[in-house]
Amino acid sequence: MKYEIALWRVPSPVVKQGKYSSVIEDRGVLKKAIADSANNFLFSEAGAGVQPLAIIGTREEIAAYLISNKGRKVVNKIASLPDIYMGVSPYAPGDRFSGLFPANDFGIQLFSQLAKFFPDVAKLNVPAFVEAAGLPGDAKELLGLLDKFNAAQGESQGAVVYLKLSYLPEDKMTKVASHEVSFATLLNQLAVAHKK
Q1: How far apart are CA 192 and CA 148, in angstroms?
Q2: Does the global pTM surpass 0.90?
């Protein structure tokens, strides 16, 4: 599956009541981040700015995106939490929904059994979130930079990673700035994270 290389808003999981007294966790779907009037991306105390930001792609694709948008910044407007943290990890897409209690597990088992006897039931699945393909960036400008991203540093060429930015520290995230960080600085931090 190919992903559009863009900045995305990461939703918070929500617990919902399902059918037959089941309880499910809805992890939501990524939504494309919208820049403010200064063409920057904000962290704020209300609205979409409360959600972390993420880029999904190979390190080379992420580098191309950051270079092609080098004039932009991530700006943190939350006075009491001014720091910006970044983490990079291998990307492992997960299911949007998961059952939290046995009633839901029973429903999944029942559905699986029905699907074996009535194949048309399996067609009722909700289609997965599909992202469009695309790679912005100037390949000529990348040539000098991509020497920093080589497979000898412990990661296979073309491996898809998940770069996450947040105003709250999470496991394996490091502080990259306070108040604001440019995309150029994020690119340098990506190179440093790759060497670890």
Answers
A1: 9
A2: no
